[in-house]
Amino acid sequence: MIAALRGRLLEKQPPRVVVDVGGVGYDVQVPLSTYGGLGALGSEVSLRVHTHVREEQIALFGFLTQLEQQIFERLIAVSGIGPKVALAVLSGITPGDLVGAVEGNEPARLTAIPGIGRKTAERIVLELRDRLPAALPVTPDLPGSGGAVRRDLSSALVNLGYTRVLVEKAVGEVLKSQPDAAFDEALRQALGRLARA
What we know:
3 domains; alpha+beta; about 45% helix
């Protein structure tokens, strides 16, 4: 089992990155919170890894923080929640907000995430009530350049299931009000605008 990877960032396209470790490229799927914290292409990265083994494939899921990995592993233990849905949850809500929604018995906060319906949200809250770790400070994301942030935000939000028209409007509004926003902060604001749309 692969538990961690440290190497050079070869490719970066939400929700996936390729990390070169000693000449071998590992394809790793990451939540948007981790994606936003990664450096530029060619930079050194270090990821905690969950290796998901199924009969027909082996998939790697990477995280910058232990908290993200713990939440991911608890989410996939919920009946009916697979790795892709768990990534969508971590991409649509911060770990601290997820812990707060579960502890506060607020499944409605989870239904704003694309692909999470009422029954799934209720199941997550019910099954994780006593099993989630306490919210810890998450490593701050690195600021990116305006053009790269716009492109990455648009791609990430479309991959989450939002329509291109709504995404472009929300991203444009966020970057107009805060042109130098880091990816993570811009993502939070764009998700907030899309949830109200």
